[in-house]
Write a structure and sequence with these properties.
The chain is an alpha/beta fold. The chain is about 35% helix and about 10% strand. α2 (about 35-45) packs parallel to α3 and α3 crosses α4. The termini are far apart.
Length: about 500
């Protein structure tokens, strides 16, 4: 659950005009003071205004719209297939976490809720829609699937929330979001939250929002002081990085950790490698079935899984309590994602560790991260990592008792250079002093270079030396099959004498 941040402000929740049942639920969760984004967004939403919230994950923005929505929807009742509010999320995991927020903070309200995400059967979701829901939390694709089937109507939406709008843009969901907005009633309340405000998102706010109030929290340019950062430079490529990661995990006191990769294909490869080496690891990526993804997350939260290998999309917004480590197997392509990643640890005043592996190919991305931080990431100095392969076996050529021995490829000798060597105890001064391998152990003098033969003069066809052979060939051609001369013994044919 993306809980309310512990960052405090001068205001308290009881001063915001929230009802007692909602305040009791907030108190039961252990919070009294709102974060800056909550202190600004909640009063404006309670007054029915449209707002644009510019804040990153981890600032408490989820509660900034779930709390006022619970208050607004506390009166009234939903009709079948006509939800009263809609929250659009870019990923299934974020949608599931928002649903958990409503369960925690709305436990004293009798509000119905439906979660429309991929990987779950349509029939179960349709059953909830048929009973009527107050809060509909959905990803754009699955919502449009239900709408095209005629299973959900959007004509009664009173509150719309578009969360992680910039992430929607990155994932290509903006056309779907715009199509959904056009299906909603024009008279409604809209809240849009985004970490950044690119031109495409600005166009959406100008087109579909009415005099919105902008609520902005300064972009977080550094992690909390409780996060210990480190940078490990790796010489090599993907295989060497896997070995370095395994060595780093073994040397660290890891309770639970997320290992971030930039590509989902690397997630599966790295998970398999870690499991082959005896680590308790599981992968989380977009190609997994939704039930498997939710089961993996539940096991990770419960401590049954120690290492979660995930991409940014799959792990966006995850809130795992007391996470000890974050490992960046890849330097993130966007510098802001680095802050997001390492912010998964060191939460609620606890100490956390965030280590990043980098190669020469990551120089551009690493420079962007360090410019955002305003300082370089402290380097990690350590010995050579283990060089076992992905099956957990040591490669050939490495002694089992030497963990730090370096495996070097055998060099092929040049045939030209290895064909000759100098005599023992001497240095070659000229080419004539080189000896062949056959005489390398002899004490004899080196062989002298052979003198090239003078080229023989070619024999021309009209020379006298070639005339006997030429005459013999002519005689052979004049013989018939019986071997006799065609015209007798040197006689001239009679018809030529006439």
């Amino acid at each position: 659950m993306a809980a309310i941040s512990t960052q405090t402000s001068n205001m308290q929740f009881k001063e915001m005009g929230l009802s007692d049942p909602l305040l009791n639920a907030i108190g039961s969760a252990g919070y009294e003071s709102p974060t800056p984004i909550q202190a600004e967004a909640i009063p404006n939403l309670l007054m029915g205004r449209d707002i644009i919230g510019i804040a990153q994950t981890g600032t408490g923005k989820t509660a900034s719209f779930t709390l006022p929505m619970i208050e607004i929807l506390s009166t009234g009742r939903a009709r079948a297939r006509m939800p009263r509010s809609l929250i659009l999320e870019p990923t299934r995991e974020l949608a599931a976490q928002v649903a958990e927020n409503f369960e925690v903070y709305g436990k004293n309200h009798k509000l119905s809720m439906a979660l429309l995400i991929g990987g779950v059967s349509f029939s179960d979701q349709e059953d909830k829609l048929d009973r009527g829901v107050d809060v509909l939390i959905a990803t754009p694709g699955r919502l449009l699937d239900h709408f095209e089937r005629g299973k959900v109507l959007l004509a009664d939406i009173k509150v719309l929330v578009v969360d992680e709008a910039d992430r929607m843009l990155d994932m290509g969901f903006i056309p779907d979001v715009e199509r959904i907005i056009k299906l909603l009633p024009q008279i409604r309340q809209t809240a849009m939250f985004s970490a950044t405000m690119p031109s495409e998102i600005k166009r959406l706010t100008d087109s579909y929002m009415m005099s919105p109030r902008t609520v902005q929290v300064d972009r977080q340019a550094s992690a909390a002081d409780t996060v210990i950062q480190g940078l490990l430079r790796v010489n090599g490529g993907f295989k060497e990085k896997r070995a370095a990661l395994r060595s780093l995990i073994r040397e660290s006191k890891v309770k639970n950790a997320i290992v971030f990769c930039n590509r989902k294909r690397d997630v599966a490869t790295l998970e398999k490698s870690l499991r082959n080496h005896g680590f308790n690891a599981a992968g989380l990526h977009g190609d997994m079935h939704q039930s498997s993804r939710m089961e993996t997350l539940a096991k990770f939260r419960d401590g049954d899984i120690e290492l979660l290998v995930a991409s940014d999309v799959a792990a966006r917004g995850l809130d795992i309590p007391n996470m000890s480590h974050v490992f960046n197997f890849d330097v993130p392509m966007h510098a802001e994602d680095y802050i997001h990643r390492i912010g998964r640890t060191g939460r609620a005043g606890n100490e956390g560790h965030a280590y990043t592996l980098t190669t020469r190919d990551d120089a551009k991305f690493l420079g962007g991260v360090e410019r955002l931080l305003g300082k370089p990431i402290p380097p990690i100095f350590k010995g050579a990592p283990d060089s076992t392969d992905d099956d957990g076996k040591k490669p050939e050529g490495k002694a089992n008792n030497d963990e730090n021995a370096e495996v070097r490829p055998r060099r092929r000798r040049s045939r030209r250079n290895s064909s000759y060597r100098t005599r023992p105890g001497t240095k070659p001064e000229t080419e004539n002093e080189l000896v062949s391998p056959a005489s390398k152990d002899d004490d004899t003098k080196p062989r002298k270079a052979r003198k090239p033969k003078a080229p023989s003069e070619p024999v021309r066809g009209n020379t006298k030396a070639n005339e006997p052979a030429k005459k013999q060939r002519q005689q052979k051609d004049n013989r018939e099959d019986d071997g006799d001369l065609a015209f007798g013994k040197d006689e001239t044919p009679a018809f030529l004498l006439r």
